[in-house]
Design goal:
Distance between the termini: 41 Å
Largest sheet: 5 strands, mixed
Strand order of the largest sheet: 3-2-1-4-5
CATH architecture: 2-Layer Sandwich
Number of domains: 1
């Protein structure tokens, strides 16, 4: 099992509350190839993470490399979806707002490069 993937979900579980998700409720299951799955249960911003068998509202599936790129902020979730690197089933709106979790990681710089193209 990837140490980095496990560390992401462990850190997410310790956050317990994400203000950017204060109006969001539902369960997102992340299926990561070769790693298994994690459920992220969001209840009006309160976050819990588990690996229990449960019926999620949204399922997001990708490779470990894609997931880690998403988690580091170097891959945009919408772009990954359009490129076929990220599959989404179920509640697409819930999957879409999950990107706020990646955007608001503790210790992550809020400054992002605007484009890879240089003029």
């Amino acid at each position: 099992m990837s140490q980095q993937v496990q560390e992401f979900f462990t850190a997410l579980a310790t956050r317990r509350y994400e203000p950017l998700l204060h109006s969001v409720s539902g369960t997102v299951r992340w299926n990561i190839e070769g790693e298994g799955y994690w459920n992220v249960v969001i209840n009006k911003g309160a976050i819990t993470v588990n690996r229990d068998a449960m019926l999620p509202d949204s399922v997001m599936s990708c490779s470990e490399d894609t997931f880690l790129a998403l988690a580091r902020g170097v891959q945009n979730p919408l772009t990954a979806f359009l490129q076929g690197k990220l599959a989404i089933q179920g509640n697409i709106g819930l999957a879409h707002v999950f990107q706020r979790v990646f955007e608001n990681q503790p210790g992550k710089s809020t400054h992002m490069a605007s484009s890879r193209r240089e003029s």
